[in-house]
Design goal:
The chain is an alpha+beta fold. A hairpin with a 5-residue loop joins strand 1 and strand 2.
Length: about 90
């Protein structure tokens, strides 16, 4: 019985510590790999839930509009129009 108690306590401690150190995943990189596809990289493995969950990810798109050419607004870029900003994401 003593071995069984140690096993139970050890198992509970392992489960507890694994949940204590779990953190919310952060976005580390985002690339546009196709005209309809964005590849997003997180800082840790992310498992999709088995049941439907309403989760969202906010992505900023911008367009460089040319006043001489109204059709120039048909191209949208992933990121921000600010200098040295490749992408901007908000974790929610």
């Amino acid at each position: 019985m003593n071995m069984f108690n140690r096993f139970i306590i050890t198992t509970l401690l392992v489960l507890f510590t694994s949940q204590v150190f779990a953190t919310k995943p952060l976005l580390t990189n985002a690339k546009r790999i196709d005209h309809k596809t964005i590849l997003i990289t997180f800082d840790q493995p992310v498992k999709m839930p088995e049941y439907p969950v309403n989760k969202g990810l906010s992505v900023n798109l911008y367009s460089e509009r040319d006043p001489q050419n109204p059709a120039s607004t048909l191209t949208y870029y992933l990121g921000s129009a600010m200098a040295n900003a490749d992408f901007f994401f908000q974790n929610r």
